[in-house]
From TrEMBL:
InterPro entries: CO_DH_flav_C (IPR005107), CO_DH_flav_C_dom_sf (IPR036683), Diverse_Substr_Oxidored (IPR051312), FAD-bd_PCMH (IPR016166), FAD-bd_PCMH-like_sf (IPR036318), FAD-bd_PCMH_sub1 (IPR016167), FAD-bd_PCMH_sub2 (IPR016169), Mopterin_DH_FAD-bd (IPR002346)
PANTHER family recorded: OXIDOREDUCTASE (PTHR42659:SF1), XANTHINE DEHYDROGENASE SUBUNIT C-RELATED (PTHR42659)
Keyword Oxidoreductase included in the entry's annotation: yes
Organism the protein comes from: Pseudonocardia sediminis
Protein name: Xanthine dehydrogenase YagS FAD-binding subunit
Taxonomic classification: Bacteria, Bacillati, Actinomycetota, Actinomycetes, Pseudonocardiales
PROSITE patterns: FAD_PCMH
Amino acid sequence: MRPFELTAPATVPDALASPGAFLAGGTTLVDLMKLDVETPGHVQDINALPLRGLDTRDGLRIGALERMSDVAAHPGVYPMISRALLLSASQQLRNMASIGGNLLQRTRCSYFRDVAAPCNRRDPGSGCPAISGSNRMHAVLGTSEACVATHASDLAVALTALDAQVVLAGAEGTRTVALADLYRLPGTSPEVENDLRPGELITEVQVPRLDWAQHSTYVKVRDRASYEFALCSAAVALDVRDGRIADARVAVGGVATVPWRLGAVEEALRGTPVTQESFEAAASVAADGATPLSDNGFKVSLLPRTIVRALRELTEGSRA
C-alpha cells in the first residue's frame, strides 16, 4: 500500500470541499489499495458524517452509512433486500460494510485486481484478457469487446428490482438518480463504471413503497454456501391474486455487467397462473441476447433455472 493522507471531515460540505477517496467500512477500498489497484493520495474517513438512519414510514429510506448487517436485521426491510444482504460476504464484513460502499464496490474480476495484467477498466486501452482467458465467473449479458466483468453487488440487484433511487451530494448540490441509471454498461469505456460526478457522494438510498414486495425473495447460486460471489442470482417479488400473477419484479445478478432488470420476464409473468409451466415459459426469455464465452456458457441455462427456483420459493403451497 502506498502512503496517503487521511482526514475525517465532520460534515458533508467539508467532505465535498476536499478531493479524495471516501472511506466508510473500507471493505472494498482498503483491499484495492493493498493491491495498488486504487492509489489515492488522500483518503477521507466519512464515518462521522450524519448519513445514518432507516425510515420505513412511506417506502424505505436508508442512510448511506448504515451497515449491511443492521439493514438486513431491520423488520421493515423488504425480504429480497434482507436476503441479498445476508447472502453477501461474511458476518464480519457485513458488520463493517456500508450500504453506499456496497453499491459502489468494484468488480471482482481477477484481471482487474491483478495490476500485472491488462485491464480496460483499470488501464483503458490495454485490453480485456478475460474474453479469451479465464472467464467462468464473467458476464453473458451487457458485455462488450472492451469488458465482460460482472457487477459484484447482491444488494444492487434487489434494489434495481424495486426501482430504488440514490441521493447524491456534490459540489453542484443534491440530485436523485434511479439506481439502474447510476450504473453504466462497459461499451467502449469500461473505466467509467457509473454516473457519479467527480467528488459526488451517495447520501441516501430510497425505495418506493410497494406493499406486495413483502412477498419477495433473493436466490443466489454460488460455488460455496458462504463468502462467495454469485454465479447467478435472482431478486423476485410477486403480486399474486386468486391464483394468478397480477404483477412481478425480476432482476438478476452474477450474469451481467450491471444489475440486470428483466422487464420481458416480468411482462411474461403478468396474468399467468401460478404454475411451473408459467414460470418456465416466462423465464425462457431471460437470457435473450446473451453472449457466452468459452467457460461461462452454463450461465445461459442457469439463469432461467434460478428465476424459476425463486418463483417456486415464493409460491410453494399456492401453485395449481
